[in-house]
Amino acid sequence: MTPLRLSCKKATALLVAREDRRLALLERLALGVHLRLCDACTRMDGQMRVMQRGLAQWRNYREDESRED
């Protein structure tokens, strides 16, 4: 397999790894190519981004902000 050609399993592993570290240039390029070609992994990437935003909002949530007293 060429360095820029990823399996869905490897692409998924990179999507998860991206949460914890900055991907190397070759990893970012390969993931970008894969996401342009694979609808399933693109959907997973979108789902992970939705979860990231939700978790960020939850981390910044304060109970006193939610009350309208």
Describe the 3D structure.
- By secondary structure, the chain is mainly α.
- It has one domain.
- Helix content is 70%, strand content 0%.
- It has four helices and no strands.
- It has helices at residues 8-17, 25-37, 39-59, 63-66.
- The protein is elongated, with a radius of gyration of 16 Å.
- The termini are far apart.
Query: Beta fraction of the residues?
Result: under 5%
Mean pLDDT: 88
Q: Classify the helix fraction into a percent range.
A: 55-70%
The outline comes out as elongated
What's the topology here?
Layout: H1 8-17, H2 25-37, H3 39-59, H4 63-66
From the structure above, extract its key features.
single chain; 69 residues; mainly alpha; 4 helices; elongated
Please outline what is shown here.
With about 70 residues, the chain is an all-alpha fold.
